[in-house]
Amino acid sequence: MFRALASILVCCFFLEASFWSHICYGNLITCSGIVPMRYRNDKISITDFGGVGDGNTLNTKAFQEAIYRIQHLRRRGGTLLYVPPGVYLTDSFNLTSHMTLYLARGAVIKATQDTWNWPLIAPLPSYGRGRERPGGRYMSFIHGDGLHDVMITGENGTIDGQGGIWWNMWRQGSLQFTRPNLVEFVNSRGIIISNVIFKNSPFWNIHPVYCSNVVIRYVTILAPPDSPNTDGIDPDSSSNVCIEDSFISTGDDLVAVKSGWDEYGIAYGRPSSCITIRRVTGSSPFAGIAVGSETSGGVENVLAENIVLYNTGIGVNVKTNIGRGGFIKNITVSEVFMENVRTGIRIAGDTGDHPDNNFNPNALPYVKGITLKNIWGVNVHQAGSIQGLKNAPFTGICLSKVNLRSTTGPRSPPWKCSDVSGAAIEVSPWPCAELTSPQQSGSCASHF
Fold first, then answer.
1. Is residue 23 in a domain?
2. Catalytic pick from 234, 252, 253, 262?
């Protein structure tokens, strides 16, 4: 029976879900050229491999055997692995190419809390060590390395990382290695994540790193506001990434674009480029849309638009540091509404820590071409802060039609600016003398 149902659901979904071509030119990024995803002729259920959705039975072997079958039989067009309603407890597991992990409505894939047996993997070369602790790191709950043509989708089923035990280890200082992400793809391409709820990640929720052609859409990502480092979506040294039509409420940045950490990211030298973020709504005690602070491989050509933020620490946050090196350029954020936000806009060169003492203090980041336009905020305590570096000023900072109202009246406290140049038009409260009118600054006039 599930085969007939899955055929109908998958057929309907694939009319909408798709690969896409990502066109990047100048500082404008568009998602276009939608191409239907390949239909999966072969369909199997986790129950075919002994899966039991009672919330108590351990299903690690069932997932491993099902994915082994997909990997080694290599059915033409790939295989859909169907997870029916129920709660499927499992250890972490690896995906394979040419597969769809499909969660039915009411299906929950839940991580065990057996942290002692959680597998360890090598640190990412662009980080040189685990992000939290030296040495290796715990493998993500659902992991993929060197894959292509993979989907995680369904009828809004749930992937639950049961992160509470990991958060407590972090608070108590008892972590031996860096906590696992909920979902991570490494060196992969042609990835679609859609129509799934992600909750209670131990660390970052969705982390595509060294990837290309990634679509993340129609997802819900949830974690308590006090859960440490539970970033929503972190494209990292990846290109052609589209994030859209999603709700995120976590304990850290909702979307953060990254590209490696200090000397390790500089040496690896893989930028994040052509990143589109649109129609994302959410709340966080940290940032709504962030670039950084790990940007040592470079970040360029990022477009974020139609963003709604509430109860958030910083609306838009571009952050880097001495020792990062790399570049941040051609960033456009537009059509943003924010309410009850501590700081509306923050662009800073003094944010983030270092992996070790071997970073080069002369490796200064290059920041140029950041456009923020059509941004409206109410109950914004501090309108903005743009503070570059004395020996590496931030240039081409362009503000247009930005209105950020204070919690105490129509005017927010004054902007803080230093080591920055650019232009502003129709900005309230007026930002700072460093940002002149567009008539006085030819470098930004083309943005208005």
1. no
2. 252
